[in-house]
Amino acid sequence: MIPFALRENLLTADPDDCMAQVVSEKAQIFTQDKIDAEIIKRGGISEAALAAVRQAEKAVYADIIADGGVISTDLFSTSFSISGVFANQADTFDPKRHAVNLNVNAGVLLKEAAKKAKIDAKKEEIRQEDIANGVYIPMSLIKAEPKEGVISV
């Protein structure tokens, strides 16, 4: 389930417009250890074999990226971008002014799985909890009173 809360949409002129914000701290988080335990539980591979495959997989992925390669799997794909300003066509990459960025996007399998994800219908509970904890304050609850003061120049 994807937990979310509705927030006021400050990007539109309509004061009633809302936007959804996923509440990640309320989502189930699956670490590599939890995923590996689930794979072992489903059977077909031992813990030792899985650990060996994972180690090899991590090393291969790291080597591909370190060599400037691009990865494309059912789970994810990678690409690179370079940020920073180059003074002219003759300018070269300078790590003080430029950065190499690794971009990661969901692959076909994860994109299809995301379409099947269910939305948590408890959004109002989450919103009320956020309001109670001061994490979210609706603009309609903020009463701005005019203030008087002196500006010295």
Describe the structure.
This protein has 153 residues and is of the alpha+beta class. The chain is 33% helix and 17% strand. The protein has 4 helices and 4 strands. The protein has a two-stranded antiparallel sheet with strand order 1-2. A two-stranded antiparallel sheet has the order 3-4. The longest helix has 20 residues, at 47-66. The radius of gyration is 24 Å and the shape is flat. The protein starts with a strand and ends in a 21-residue tail after the last helix.
Stretches where pLDDT is under 50 for at least 5 consecutive residues are none
Q: Specify the helix fraction band.
A: 25-40%
Instruction: Please count the helical segments.
Output: 4
The global form is flat
CA radius of gyration: 24 Å
Q: Reading side by side through the largest sheet, how are the strands ordered?
A: 1-2
Distance between the termini: 57 Å
Briefly summarize what is shown.
The protein is of the alpha+beta class. The chain is built from four helices and four strands, in the order ββααββαα.
